[in-house]
Design a protein that fits this description.
2 strands; 73% helix
């Protein structure tokens, strides 16, 4: 990570620090609605980094990441409701539960040679199976949903109960931490093993890389990080429904940012979230204000944006942007 920072051109360092300062100061100048949009930008940037580790770095397509998001959300919120265990402790249990689920999915897939699109279908199947299970689990409200009490006057950060400013800075910390972790992993020996496996698993195995092991590590880290995003989701929205949190549309929503921004890059998930989230929220606001009610309009809109960007920038927006800002040139 230090090497990556040292190799960055000077103007790239200034742009990075400026962007960080803009995000830190944003709550001082924007209204509540725009701040809520920025919360979603940072939230999807964080989740995009988590998914990018598995797909962008290790080359394993997962279309069922809503599984880990939902498990993280339900684990932490249930622990708080039933046992009074706060989210700052419950998040570690949530990570363990999601990592265990990722361990099962990865083991069943890669141990038996399930690759490519078939592995993606396996991840969807597990997410759907879990959704059906939670639809009938009375402990968490079944299909009727799980609700956290809302107190407009309470501001206890230790229980993640507060206004939009609290969640904004939590989301900012998560997004920055995930980016730093991705940068560190990308330059680590493990990161280079991931890239080798992504490009050619057989060649990687031939030079002594344990393909199964490095894929499992990627799955465990990605699933655990996604569970943290689930905890944030549960306490931010304060209601959970299996049909929403485990749905495949939730998985698609969190992977669009890295695809649009640039798979396998450090800043791609951030750029993708900055582009896609405000556009989606603007569409929702426009439809609500104009009285239109078109089911699936947001998904169609995302699909159109995805097709346009992929046709114009197949590698994503960030590589093109980095080239024009001369950020892809190492420090001389």
């Amino acid at each position: 990570m230090t090497a990556l920072w040292n190799e960055m051109p000077r103007h790239g360092k200034w742009l990075t620090l400026l962007l960080l300062l803009v995000f830190i100061a944003a709550p001082l100048v924007v209204d509540r609605y725009l701040l809520s949009v920025l919360v979603l930008v940072l939230y999807f940037a964080y989740l995009g980094q988590a998914w990018n580790l598995l797909m962008g770095f290790a080359g394993q397509l997962s279309l069922g990441h809503a599984l880990y998001l939902g498990l993280g959300a339900y684990t932490a919120t249930t622990l708080w409701l039933l046992f009074g265990i706060g989210p700052w402790i419950g998040v570690f249990v949530a990570i363990a539960v999601a990592a265990a689920a990722g361990l099962i999915v990865g083991w069943l897939g890669w141990r038996f040679g399930v690759e490519g699109v078939y592995f993606a279908l396996l991840t969807i199947a597990f997410a759907e199976f879990t959704r059906i299970g939670f639809d009938h689990l009375g402990l968490t409200g079944a299909s009727g949903g799980l609700f956290l009490p809302v107190s407009p006057t309470a501001h206890d950060w230790w229980n993640l109960n507060g206004g939009v400013h609290l969640f904004y800075y939590v989301a900012l910390i998560l997004a920055v931490a995930a980016t730093l972790l991705a940068a560190w992993l990308r330059q680590s020996p493990l990161g280079y093993r991931w890239l080798a496996v992504r490009e050619d698993p057989l060649a990687a195995q031939a030079v002594g890389i344990n393909v199964f092991r490095v894929r499992m590590i990627a799955m465990l880290i990605s699933a655990g990080m996604t569970a943290v995003g689930g905890v944030f989701y549960g306490f931010y929205y304060r209601n959970l429904f299996p049909s929403q949190i485990f749905d495949i549309s939730r998985s698609i929503e969190l992977i669009l940012g890295p695809i649009i921004g640039g798979l396998g890059t450090i800043f791609g998930p951030i750029v993708g979230a900055i582009i896609l989230t405000p556009l989606g929220e603007s569409l929702t606001t426009f439809m609500q204000s104009s009285g239109f009610n078109v089911p699936g309009a947001k998904s169609i809109f995302y699909g159109i944006i995805l097709m346009i960007i992929i046709s114009l920038r197949p590698s994503g927006v960030w590589p093109w942007l980095a080239k024009h800002l001369r950020l892809d040139r190492p420090k001389s």
